[in-house]
Amino acid sequence: MSATAVHSLWTMAGEVTSAAPGDRFTAPTIEYAQLAPVLIVIGAAVLGILVEAFVPRRARYTTQVFLTVVAIAAAFAAVVGLAADGYATKNAQIAAMGAVAVDGPALFLQGTILLVSMVSVFTFAERRLDPASHGNRVDSFAAQAGSVPGSDGEKAAVKAGFTTTEVFPLALFSVAGMLVFPAANDLLTLFIALEVFSLPLYLLCAVARRKRLMSQEAAVKYFLLGAFSSAFLLFGIALLYGYAGTVSYAGIGDVVDGSVQQIDPALAGTMGNDALLLIGAAMILMGLLFKVGAVPFHMWTPDVYQGAPTPVTGFMAAATKVAAFGALLRLLYVVLPGLTWDLRPVMWGVAIVTMLGGAIVAITQTDIKRLLAYSSIAHAGFILAGVIAASPEGISSVLFYLAVYSFVTVGAFAVVTLVRDAGGEATHLSKWAGLGRRSPLTAAVFAVFLLSFAGIPLTSGFSGKFAVFKAAADGGASGLVVVGVISSAIAAFFYIRVIVLMFFSEPKADGPTVAVPSPLTMTTIAVGVAVTLVLGLAPQYFLDLASQAGVFVR
Amino acid sequence: MNPVNYLYLAALLFTIGASGVLIRRNAIVVFMCVELMLNACNLTLVAFSRMHGNLDGQIIAFFTMVVAAAEVVIGLAIIVSLFRSRHSASVDDASLMKL
């Protein structure tokens, strides 16, 4: 296209919009009821900031916990209400001028994210694990995140009994972003939601009470790599916008399929340009695969999971994965179905190296949090196998797996917070030796979680893995299933090794003690165990629910 | 001038930014390189916006600027707190956790 033609197009467009200012502006219609879950959470987060500003320090903790729990419960009620009104099935629609989809997968994942966040917030609020300092009960978060570790300022803050109650509104902002992420129906909303849930997470990583240097280091690594990957995502968005002339999922999907009715002459030049499409799609996928922690974009996962405060790790491991896989599913099924065959080899490769890489590297780990981090990478690979299936069963099996996996993860990290010695949490595996003799209940609960991760029958992990692998095999990805089963076997080895270590080795004299938690953490762990057993023994109802929810609106 | 040239410039800036993130060792400089990448994205969006004759790209560029500003706030907070506890902003020194 020549420069003059471009210029005339530009001025023409300018004339149309400037011809009658005021007349041509129509206010956007926003469906507030359908967006209620997100709005409730964001509203509560803003209120939480005001609480920080105006409520006296003594009362902040109680106020924040109350506000957060009520907001998440209300948002969950809103999600259930929307689902009951049929928005998950026949009434599925696109709200807010095409920005947000209200459909089955979105509501299912939003419900999962809210429930998981609820139990995570319970672990955030736990105050009985750390020994009381200066007569104040303290949680896992720094007295004052801005103070230098080991300085006089920090000692004064600890003595004064400060706590970082800002974590609750930060968590709420993050949850709000996660709610939008799987529902985003245009690329701009996708990017903004990604940033809204990532930025608070970067901060949450940095505010551990113990091992603060490690915590800050984790935050820097997560932040720099996260910003790097979101820049790639944004460049991908820019290229897809250049390709299709629009950022709405349906609009791009039409162009990719070649089913556009009338081609705008201004766009004819770029629409045929497959380089824009392929590079753009690859860069967006890169950004999303970074968030789910797939190999080769996984390098941040172990360090961040290890360094972040353990309640935050549990929240991040569970909820981020749900949100990011939701967005990945919608992108692949709504925007890029026309590219399924082009992307298949790449996605196959990523899934295979993720499954094998996560499982193999996990064997050499000596830290329980790093071990769980590599196990989460392997699980990302299993879920990717379901994503690649490219069938309705693929969607519903991924939804089911995400629900299963997230509750087990939060529960497992909640158990990690209980095993402590003088330096805080005792995360080195050697310290876990003989835990089963000293506190059989804790070790048994952790064993249940590990068996579920390993996918042993009668646990939820088995139902999830079975659903995902079955969908993948039916979708023509038998090779992936073979690799998946092999890496499950490798992964089972190190899960079982931890169980053996806990139950069949002598406890050490200077071993860690298991703290008795308040009902908050107990609830988190109990919910994890309940979900593991119920979805392991009677998964059918939830599988049906997931398959009813497994249709994207377009 | 042909707007396609701006796309080449943007791709070049993006590549410089990405190489900077990978090569430079100071957290602040790494972060500045990320900002350069975001600005390259903005330039791409605006150039495409002009080529297509619709305004979506320019609107997205505004959103990107806001996001970049928010990222600066969070990023500097984290990097400064790291610097104050270690007296170094080098990403190589931050290596308590390895393997």
From TrEMBL, chain A:
Membrane topology note: Multi-pass membrane protein
Chain ranges of the NADH:quinone oxidoreductase/Mrp antiporter transmembrane domain: 184-490
Family: Belongs to the complex I subunit 2 family.
Function text: NDH-1 shuttles electrons from NADH, via FMN and iron-sulfur (Fe-S) centers, to quinones in the respiratory chain. The immediate electron acceptor for the enzyme in this species is believed to be a menaquinone. Couples the redox reaction to proton translocation (for every two electrons transferred, four hydrogen ions are translocated across the cytoplasmic membrane), and thus conserves the redox energy in a proton gradient.
PANTHER family (alphabetical): NADH DEHYDROGENASE (PTHR22773)
Enzyme class: translocase
Description of how the protein assembles with itself and partners: NDH-1 is composed of 14 different subunits. Subunits NuoA, H, J, K, L, M, N constitute the membrane sector of the complex.
Highest taxon in the source lineage: Bacteria
Bilayer-spanning residue ranges: 35-53, 65-84, 104-125, 167-184, 190-208, 220-244, 275-300, 312-333, 345-364, 371-392, 398-419, 440-460, 480-504, 516-538
Keyword Membrane annotated: yes
Keyword Transmembrane: yes
Signal peptide: none
Subcellular location: Cell membrane; Endomembrane system; Membrane
Keywords: Cell membrane, Membrane, NAD, Quinone, Translocase, Transmembrane, Transmembrane helix, Transport
Enzyme Commission code: 7.1.1.-
One Pfam family from the record: Proton_antipo_M
Gene name for this UniProt entry: nuoN
NCBIfam families: NDH_I_N (TIGR01770), PRK05777.1-4 (NF004441)
Catalyzed reactions per annotation: a quinone + NADH + 5 H(+)(in) = a quinol + NAD(+) + 4 H(+)(out)
Annotated protein name in UniProt: NADH-quinone oxidoreductase subunit N
TrEMBL record, chain B:
Major location (coarse): membrane
UniProt subcellular location: Cell membrane; Membrane
Principal EC category: translocase
Protein origin, superkingdom: Bacteria
GO cellular component, one term: NADH dehydrogenase complex
Coiled coil (UniProt feature): none
Name of this chain's protein: NADH-quinone oxidoreductase subunit K
Organism of derivation: Streptomyces pratensis (strain ATCC 33331 / IAF-45CD)
